[in-house]
Amino acid sequence: MSDTHSRETEQALQDRKTRIIVIGAGLGALLGLISSYLYARAAEENSDGEAGPGSSISTGQLLAVLLAVLGLVRQIAELGKPNDDKKSRKK
Predict the structure, then answer these.
(1) According to a count of CB atoms within 10 Å of the terminal CB, is the N or C end of the chain lower?
(2) In the chain, count of helices (H) and strands (E)?
């Protein structure tokens, strides 16, 4: 009976992991779609009417966005960790 319960628990954990990954992929795709739409719209509004591309993204701007994304990913990863009361009770 213990072996059956163990397999059911393992299957439930695997199902939960799959669901989390699918939801995360969907949210990431949606965020990327919205971000690219807003970027394209802003570039179009700020263009001078020529058919050519607008100003390019600077390395500093790209680095700032990359650091913000890394910070967001780190915060999301921290959500999966259990709360540690020791951190909140610093002596």
Answers:
(1) C
(2) 3, 0
For 4, phi then psi, to 5°, come to: -65, -45
Span 2-21, pLDDT tens digits: 678 888 899 999 999 999 99
Residue count of the chain, please give it: 91
- For tokens 């009976």, name the residue: 1
What is the C-alpha separation between 67 and 65, in angstroms, rounded? 5
Supply 45's token pair.
């509004």
40: its two tokens: 């394209």
- How far is 65 from 35, CA to CA, in rounded Å? 12
Taking a C-beta distance cutoff of 8 angstroms, is the pair 42, 53 a contact? no
DSSP states of 18-38: HHHHHHHHHHHHHHHHHHHHH
